[in-house]
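Our preliminary data section would be incomplete without showing what the modeling component actually yields. Below, a chain of 138 amino acids is followed by its predicted structure, encoded as tokens that our downstream tools consume directly.
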Amino acid sequence: MKFRKPSLEPAGMQLAPMIDIVFLLLIFFIVTWQFSRSETEMKISVPSSQEGADPKRVIGEIIVNVRVSGEVVVEGQVMTQAKLKEKLTAIARQHKNQPIRLRGDADCAYQTIVEVIDTCQKAGIWNISFATQRKKTE
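Predicted structure:
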């Protein structure tokens, strides 16, 4: 009795799952890049400082931008102090110790910054940090 050797052909590589993963990664990076860009795209020149903490963002941190004109912008929407308080109160009810990053322009009125801090405290948010940039060394 003669047995034949079965010829084993190499299995072809499946490209469909690999292409799916590559496209998912591409979509993920595009979406996260656009999200982080939209929060800081405004022309706000934050004050400079020689000292400061590491600028790492906290997960779930809300960025509150204050323009030179005194406008308060959160998530691309210009808000009054009343709207800001309403939004932050709703968030504070859901998330205890909600972090807020205050990005005030270096040339805006200090009174506006104080009003935003007061609004945050009235809404029940105490975890507030301030955005600065390092002084440029010459």
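The chain is about 40% helix and 20% strand. The domain at 43-51+59-134 is CATH 3.30.420.270 (Nucleotidyltransferase; domain 5). Preliminary results of this kind motivate Aim 1 of the renewal.
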